[in-house]
Amino acid sequence: MPTNRPDSSELIASVREMLETQFLPNLDDKNLIYQSRVAINILNIVGRELANGSAMTGAEQQRLAALLDQAGDADSLNAALIARIRAGDYDQGPEALMAHFLATTLDKIAIDNPGYSTYREYQQSGQFNNY
Do residues 62 and 120 lie in contact, with contact meaning Cβ atoms separated by under 8 Å? Predict the structure, then answer.
């Protein structure tokens, strides 16, 4: 598919900026202010997902393929992982499984809420200080 300008990420950024700089400052209704902030947050999430989602899904697929020692797409590999967990395959040695869960969770937080304080602490120190 040909790429036109502005692309989807530029369109999202433009709408977000308009909401933040032109629409939101002129609102008095608390419900509309809240709804506008929700919309801005959604646009931020979609923008991050467009920018990083494919790479993160690819990384998850590679981790799953290595963990399970089989090929497949991310959905089929996740289904296989669920079946193996239910069968008790990781009861005695969950370290690789937990490493996969941690990496996948960190990728999801990077999309959904990269400002989350515990996530930022982990990014800086490589460990969770509160857990």
Answer: no
Tens-place pLDDT, residues 72-123: 999 999 999 999 999 999 888 889 999 999 999 999 999 999 999 889 988 8
User: Is 93 within a domain?
Assistant: yes
Query: Is the full-model pTM beyond 0.70?
Result: yes
> How many domains does the structure of the chain reveal?
1
The domain of 64 spans 8-125
Print burial letters for 2-38: b (CB count within 10 Å at least 16), e (below 16): eeeeeeeeeebeeebeebeeeeeeeeeeeeeeeebee
* CB distance 128 to 121 below 8 Å: yes
Instruction: Establish if 83 belongs to a structural domain.
Output: yes
